[in-house]
Structures are given as C-alpha cells and as structure tokens.
From TrEMBL:
Gene3D superfamilies, per the entry: 3.30.450.180, lambda repressor-like DNA-binding domains
Pfam families per UniProt: HTH_31, MLTR_LBD
Superkingdom to which the source organism belongs: Bacteria
Domain HTH cro/C1-type: 30-81
A single GO molecular function term of this UniProt record: DNA binding
Organism phylogeny: Bacteria, Bacillati, Actinomycetota, Actinomycetes, Micrococcales
Organism of provenance: Orlajensenia flava
Protein's recorded name: Helix-turn-helix domain-containing protein
Length: 286
C-alpha cells in the first residue's frame, strides 16, 4: 500500500476524535477539526514533526511500536488497528499482544465519569488514557511519553506521583507492581513491546532486577484504598482509590473519589477547577 493511504487514514481518524474522547479539555476556539496533531502526538508518545511527515506520506516505515501507540491513542477498533498494522507493513498483533484498546463500553463508562478523576492502564501498568479531572489532580499526563507512561518506571526511576507514601508503602507498591508485571509477562510471552519494557527496566533499575529475579508472586494484601494526594495548589487531599478490572480487555480503571460534603470533597472540586482551567488556557494559546 502507498504511504499516502496510511497517512490519510491516520489523519481521518485524528479528525474524527474529540478532545473529550481523548481525555483532554476542550479549550477555547479550535481551528483544527478533531484533535490537533500536537495532541495526538503527545498521546502516542511521538514527535509532532514525525506525525506530520507520517500524515503527509513522507514517513514511510513507522515501527510496530509507533503503530501500536497510534492505534491506542486513536481509539481504533480491532479491525482498524489491524488495518493500520498491515498498511505499515507489520503483522497484526493478535491475542499474544497486551491489549491497549479502549472498547466502546469502557469509553461509555469513562464518559459517565467525566467529572471524576479516572485513568485507564493496560496490564503492564502503562497509562492508556486519563481524563481532564485526573490530569488536574495528578498533573498533565499528556506530557508523559514512552516508558514514562508506565507506573512502575515512574516509581522506580522517574519522579513518582503526587500520591504520598511512607517508605514501607512505597516498597510494597513497587514489589507488587514488579510481581504483577511478571504475571503479565507470563500471559503475553511473545509481546515484543513488553520484552523491551522489561529489558529497559532491568537496564535502569538494580532494584527491579533484584525483585524480578526473586520470583515473588503478587501479594494479594490490600495496600489501602485511601490515598493522600499532595496537590501543589490545594495541599493534601484524602481520597478513596478504587481499581476496577476489565477482565475481557485486561484493563485497569482507577477512580478517585471523596465522600460528599467533606473538606476533601471541596478540595478535590477546587483542584479539578484549577487544573482544567490551566489546561484550557494552555490549549487556547496554542
């Protein structure tokens, strides 16, 4: 297939998406139809320049990893994802690849929770999508690219998150995430992206190597549903964090809520207002 057909499809799929469907604030006036190139590039973890060249048919050989990231960011159906892979000259993922697609039913659930902080992770702990309230609470996740979107990497190597943990809680969390990743690896042993993730974690974190080689099984103990989020504008917020598993799609949905009528509920509402206003201002000035 000609590269122009691949680029044209990517552009048409980008233009049919709305900021809300991608977990982004609408912002002010928008000249672009659908998502801006910069927005899709950020969601897919690629450069806007590369996306421009791809849509214009000047980038002709996107890697399977880039194609998979674009399929995830564009919310493609299984058939559309497979078509994108074939046009790029790659084999279709099949059942041996960690699922990253947000199904229509899960998207409807996210739409119903549009005013609640919600994030969706795949089985590797990699962030697939976060809505605007989540970004307002936890920081702008569209600035996370590549491996930085994986929670385990952020906890081991990166800057962590706004969730407050004692050293013991942090150690338990990391050990659980490593054990979960090992279980995921056993379910998808031929997933090349997963193998690359594990290799990169081994290269960058001696603690990961130690925990991985220990062979410990996931600890089924509750780490605690109550989380304290240290927000830079409103201070600490005590919230309930519930993790919902979508077994058929092997996804994890994290939802943060506060008991209505409490000071924490008021602080959460303020954090969301402040954060969504800030993101809207940034997008309006783009």
């Amino acid at each position: 297939m000609e590269s122009s057909e691949l680029g044209g499809l990517v552009r048409s799929w980008r233009e049919r998406m709305t900021p809300a469907s991608a977990g982004l604030p609408e912002g002010g006036r928008r000249r672009a139809i659908g998502l801006r190139r910069e927005e899709l590039a950020a969601l897919a973890g690629i450069s806007p320049d590369y996306l421009t060249r791809l849509e214009q048919g000047r980038a002709t050989s996107p890697s399977a990893q880039v194609v998979q990231s674009l399929a995830r960011a564009l919310r493609l159906s299984d058939a559309e994802r497979d078509l994108l892979h074939r046009l790029a000259g790659h084999a279709t993922p099949g059942l041996s690849v960690v699922p990253t697609r947000i199904s229509a039913s899960v998207q409807r659930l996210l739409d119903r929770l549009a005013h609640t902080p919600v994030a969706v992770y795949d089985a590797t702990g990699t962030l697939l999508v976060a809505n605007a309230p989540y970004n307002a609470l936890m920081g702008d996740t569209t600035a996370w690219h590549g491996i930085a979107r994986t929670a385990l990497w952020r906890n081991l190597v990166g800057t962590g998150s706004r969730v407050v943990h004692t050293p013991e809680e942090q150690a338990d969390l990391i050990a659980m995430q490593v054990a979960d990743l090992r279980m995921t690896s056993s379910r998808y042993p031929t997933d090349r992206s997963l193998r690359r993730l594990i290799a990169q974690l081994k290269a960058e974190s001696p603690l990961f190597v130690e925990l991985w080689d220990s062979g410990a099984a996931p600890d089924q103990r509750e780490l605690g549903r109550s989380k304290t989020i240290l927000h830079p504008a409103v201070g600490p917020i005590d919230l309930d964090c519930d993790s919902l598993v979508v077994a058929q799609d092997d996804l994890r949905i994290m939802v943060y809520t506060a008991e209505p009528g409490t000071p924490d509920a008021e602080k959460l509402a303020l954090a969301i207002v402040l954060g969504t206003q800030t993101l809207s201002d940034v997008l309006a000035n783009d």
